[in-house]
Amino acid sequence: MLDVPQSISVVTRERLDDQAQRSMADVLRYVPGTTVGQGEGNRDQITLRGQNTSADFFLDGVRDDVQYYRSLYNIERVEILKGPFALIFGRGGSGGIINRVQKTPTADGLAVRGSVSANTFGAWDLAADINAPISDNAAFRLNATYESLDNHRDFFGGERYAINPYLAVDMGPWKLGLSYEYVNDDRVTDRGVPSIATLTGQPNRPITGYRDTFFGTPGVNRAGLEAHIVKARLDGELTETLNWSTTLLYGDYDKYYTNVYPNGPATGRPERWRCSAILTLPGVRTLSPRQIWSGMWI
User: How far apart are CA 155 and CA 157, in angstroms?
Assistant: First the structure.
């Protein structure tokens, strides 16, 4: 890690595997100064040093601010930088950023790794990681995953699958990396349980006794994402003291979500709740370039 004027927490791949972490919420739950939000059941939502955000996410240093659930199957480590960061990453919130560092091919030889996990709610997932040298100066890596989603809430379910081929070429003083990722995520949107003030003038609190109850309509509360993410990175040495690094990311994200959610108890019927509905059909295409000059003059 380079010296930066910020507090940094790094979650390594070893820790991700040791604690069976599968989501950004799993990672950030153990990082000081961060709080995981509900995200309306369709996206990563965090609070960094008191600043709520769903946009301060990066992938290998380039902005990844589309609202969706990010997977960790192809991630080498997660970096959490706390505090203002305009001088390092440009525009963004003052609480900090979350940067995912992608797995890259290596020339260390053929390596095949797989994992299977399950929990007591019925969720399970498969993941595969294959690294293979192609020649003396090129290597290929393939990561893939499939997840069957479930939790303690009635009617919740879904699936997510993704694949990420990555090619790396060593051209002497220059190194080129080309990555393509496909993600498909379809799930019921679980927004948790509603909150209500127990006494007049008191702050709202989640209602009790309904831990497993699904507040919504299973056939309507849905969220889906299909994403195509292409990334190219070029690193090289211009002189003995001057390096060049360029990363270009193109993402095509097709997302929808619909929600029926409670917004308050029915008048005179505290055991019943009024409901509201939301329908969004956003489609996002993003182009995120990043260039870095680094060097030292004496």
Answer: 7
Segment 64-76 mean pLDDT: 92
Mean pLDDT of 85-101: 75
In single-letter form, the type of residue at position 68 comes to Y
Beta carbons of 288 and 230 less than 8 angstroms apart: no
Tell whether domain 7-295 is in CATH 2.40.170.20. Answer: yes
pTM over 0.90: no
Backbone angles phi, psi at 24, to 5 degrees: -65, -35
> Read out DSSP for 234-282?
EEEESSSSEEEEEEEEEEEEEEEEEEEEEEEEETTEEEEEEEEEEEE--
Tell me how many degrees the CA angle 52-181-26 measures, rounded to the nearest 5.
40
pLDDT at 271 over 60: no
DSSP characters for 92-159?
Answer: --SSEEEEEEE----SS--EEEEEEEE-TTS-EEEEEEEEEEEETTEEEEEEEEEEEE--SSTT--EE
Task: Using DSSP, state whether 24 is helix, strand or coil.
Answer: helix
Residues sharing a CB contact under 8 Å with residue 18, sequence separation 6 or more, in sequence order: none
Residue 65's SS3 state is coil
Instruction: Give mean pLDDT, residues 206-229.
Output: 87
- All structural domains of the chain with their residue ranges: 7-295
Is the dihedral angle over the CA atoms 78, 192, 277, 155 positive or is it negative?
positive
The sheet with strand 34-36 has its strands ordered as 34-36, 46-48, 51-53
Mean pLDDT, rounded, for 12-33: 91
d(CA 281, CA 255): 6
Instruction: Report the alpha-carbon distance of residue 261 to residue 267 in Å, rounded.
Output: 17
